[in-house]
């Protein structure tokens, strides 16, 4: 039975999936825009640091005010309305809640939310992929131990890439490479919230009109978010990552199967079976026609002459050898698609992407020379950007994961372009996020690295 049919059945039975949302910002608002149009789902409660802002966003996406006037979660559950407040713990601890959608974008808080949800046997759809990037494999293990499902969020690019990889493998194709698109030039890694809009392609006036967050958008531009999302994909699919960061080869959609081949065959990959990000800009800054900037892709290989001939007969666009073929989605609709994850975890017990190994990590890397006493401002800020590295390389260097590089004091000089280690910073070791990260390293690092 399809997910939609299952949702209709739940609606007919009067047994909707009961959802709690933590964080009603832009991503959360996009999901909220779809909830009234989705059968068999009751968004029972929303927790946000600013309930007034949450209600404003609800009004912006078309919710009627009376739908959010439930004075308590109990009232919301009885009436079918939605309670809006600040108490996220009350939501995740209530026995009637089935699924928690973590949508804060704050990685340290997200770890707290996920762990509490698991402790109360709630499925989690984690939109805050920044948290997944530095401890996703252990979050997945803890969810499984609690008998619940932990999932990446469909609509965001990592889950869509995982879906393409699963399609390929289920059809019997070996995955040569998979990833997303991005607008990239090397100097973007130095971008700050002050320089982001010109490089992004918007005026400051347009950004202000749209209420766009410069730090959040800069996290995409400076390469942090592509590294974070590539990490989530590698850890969920078992694909490997480049040895010294993403390469961002420029390519049109038609050229993706050309560049996502091994170097020995004319492509850019160190080996088959890797994640990579395709740039929508030529190295001189010219925009590439028919690009994949907002999309996702997977490149597969025809292992036999017969399969290669099938590619040719059905006009599949391949590389010149006829062996490598790329399937793609040119767009992703972000929060508008999260309902698929909610339905999948609640009705099928299946994640739409979940970490199964620890292949990749994102290490905080200096945007400029940093001096002792300076405070790191995390993803998208002025001090560091996130570099994708193999997990074993990160462990060897004692790399500071980008998700923990928020409000952290630098204690030693760090040169521009240098990735930071634990000894370079004074880390708050009391948070759940820090402790679960170190637990991840202890449980998942290769034995030879643990002994080093």
Automatic annotation (TrEMBL):
This is Gfo/Idh/MocA family oxidoreductase. InterPro entries: Asp/hSer_DH_NAD-bd, DRL_cat, NAD(P)-bd_dom_sf, SAF. Residues 361-426 form the SAF domain. SMART domains: SAF. One of its GO terms (molecular function) is NADP binding. The lineage of its organism: Bacteria, Pseudomonadati, Pseudomonadota, Betaproteobacteria, Burkholderiales. It comes from the Bacteria. It holds the Pfam family SAF.
């Amino acid at each position: 039975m399809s997910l939609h049919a299952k949702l209709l059945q739940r609606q007919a039975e009067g047994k909707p999936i009961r959802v709690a949302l933590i964080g009603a910002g832009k991503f959360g608002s996009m999901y909220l825009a779809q909830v009234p149009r989705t059968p068999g789902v009751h968004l029972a409660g929303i927790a946000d640091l600013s309930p007034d802002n949450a209600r404003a966003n609800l009004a912006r996406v078309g919710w009627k005010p009376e739908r959010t006037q439930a004075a308590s979660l109990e009232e919301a559950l009885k009436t079918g309305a939605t309670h809006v407040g600040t108490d996220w713990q009350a939501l995740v601890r209530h026995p009637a809640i089935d699924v928690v959608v973590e949508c804060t974008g704050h990685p340290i808080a997200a770890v707290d939310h996920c762990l509490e949800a698991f402790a109360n046997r709630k499925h989690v759809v984690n939109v805050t992929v920044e948290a997944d990037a530095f401890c996703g494999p252990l979050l997945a293990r803890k969810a499984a131990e609690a008998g619940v499902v932990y999932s990446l969020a469909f609509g965001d690019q990592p889950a869509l890439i995982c879906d393409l990889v699963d399609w390929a493998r289920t059809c019997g194709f070996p995955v040569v490479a998979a990833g997303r698109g991005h607008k990239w030039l090397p100097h973007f890694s130095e971008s700050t919230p002050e320089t982001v809009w010109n490089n992004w392609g918007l005026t400051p006036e347009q950004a202000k009109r749209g209420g766009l967050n410069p730090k959040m958008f800069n996290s995409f531009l400076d390469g942090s978010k592509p590294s974070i999302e590539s990490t989530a994909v590698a850890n969920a699919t078992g694909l490997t990552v480049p040895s010294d960061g993403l390469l961002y080869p420029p390519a049109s959609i038609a050229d993706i199967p050309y560049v996502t081949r091994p170097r020995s065959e004319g492509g850019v990959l160190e080996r088959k079976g890797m994640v990579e990000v395709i740039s929508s800009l030529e190295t001189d800054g010219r925009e590439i026609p028919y690009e994949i900037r907002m999309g996702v892709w997977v490149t597969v290989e025809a292992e036999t002459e017969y399969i290669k001939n099938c590619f040719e007969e059905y006009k599949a666009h391949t590389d010149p050898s006829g062996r490598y073929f790329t399937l793609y989605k040119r767009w992703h609709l972000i929060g508008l698609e999260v309902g698929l994850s909610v339905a999948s975890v609640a009705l099928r017990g299946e994640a739409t992407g979940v970490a199964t190994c620890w292949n990749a990590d994102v290490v905080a890397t200096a945007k400029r020379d940093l001096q002792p006493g300076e405070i790191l401002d995390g993803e998208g800020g002025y001090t560091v950007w996130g570099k994708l590295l193999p997990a074993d390389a990160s462990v060897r260097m004692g790399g500071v994961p980008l998700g923990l590089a928020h409000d952290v004091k630098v204690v030693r000089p760090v040169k521009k372009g240098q990735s930071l280690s634990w000894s370079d910073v004074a880390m708050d070791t009391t948070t759940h996020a820090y402790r679960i990260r170190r637990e991840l390293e202890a449980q998942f690092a290769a034995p030879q690295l643990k002994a080093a």
